[in-house]
Design goal:
single chain; 202 residues; alpha+beta; Heat Shock Protein 90; 8-stranded mixed β-sheet; two-stranded antiparallel ribbon; 5 helices; 26% strand; binds adenosine-5'-triphosphate; binds magnesium ion
């Protein structure tokens, strides 16, 4: 039998797996936080302003090959069950979570660096995507910049995001901070820490 592979338009994937798959902008941000967690990062900083969202981690990063084989491969996760180095159970398994980016904005730039290798930039407008060379130097990790945002983020929305993350994010192994404009950063604190039956848990 002749073997055939589906070819899908970038804009259709972004629409189906991004805009339609994530009903709320909060859940889309959370999906990207999970990727930072899976990358073994100890911190994930989210910066939100009128015109951008940035998500920055200090995880293992991606090189050119990782982008080509993992990032550009839709519907297959390279993650196993457990990250033995960082002793974390991976949260990702489906290989579609990064399309949360399409829920949040129409222009995306991902700058990533894996240990001592050169950093690389991947860019998309959800019609075409590709690599850009960079000589930016930083320690390993991933820096995501989302522009041409699909939502307005006001103080009220930031409070809703923080509420959502306080409920959804449970780990103490990676610190998550939400920075909104020039305000003090807000640290995400799980509401469900120190569960005590009958006291704060039924
Ligand atoms: N912040 C990051 N740091 C390093 N690698 C990343 C990061 N975000 C994504 N990746 C890489 O890109 C791949 C695709 O991410 P994506 O979230 O779409 O899928 P997944 O996490 O494997 O599964 P799921 O769809 O369940 O989240 C990941 O498997 C990982 O290899
Ligand atoms: Mg994921």
């Amino acid at each position: 039998m002749e073997n055939l592979k589906f070819t899908i338009e970038d804009r259709e994937i972004a629409e189906l797996l991004g805009r339609q798959n994530f009903s709320t902008k909060e859940s889309a941000v959370f999906e990207l936080i999970k990727n930072s967690y899976d990358a073994g990062s100890e911190t994930c900083n989210i910066y939100i302003d009128d015109h951008y969202i940035k998500i920055i981690d200090a995880g293992k990063g991606m090189n050119h090959e990782d982008f080509k084989t993992n990032w550009m491969h839709v519907g297959k996760s390279n993650k196993g069950y457990k990250d033995e180095i960082n002793n974390r159970i991976f949260t990702g398994s489906k290989g579609v979570g990064r399309f949360a980016l399409a829920r949040l904005g129409n222009q995306v730039k991902v700058l990533s660096k894996k240990n001592t290798e050169n950093a690389i930039i991947w860019k998309t407008d959800w019609i075409t995507s590709g690599f850009e060379e960079t000589n930016v130097d930083f320690d390993q990790g991933t820096y995501i910049e989302i522009l041409d945002l699909r939502d307005k983020w006001r103080s009220k929305d930031i409070n809703e995001l923080i509420e959502f993350l306080n409920r959804a994010y449970k780990s103490k192994e990676m610190e998550v901070f939400v920075h909104f404009k020039d305000n003090e950063p807000h640290s995400i604190q799980s509401k469900f820490q120190n569960l005590k039956i009958g006291v704060n848990y039924v």
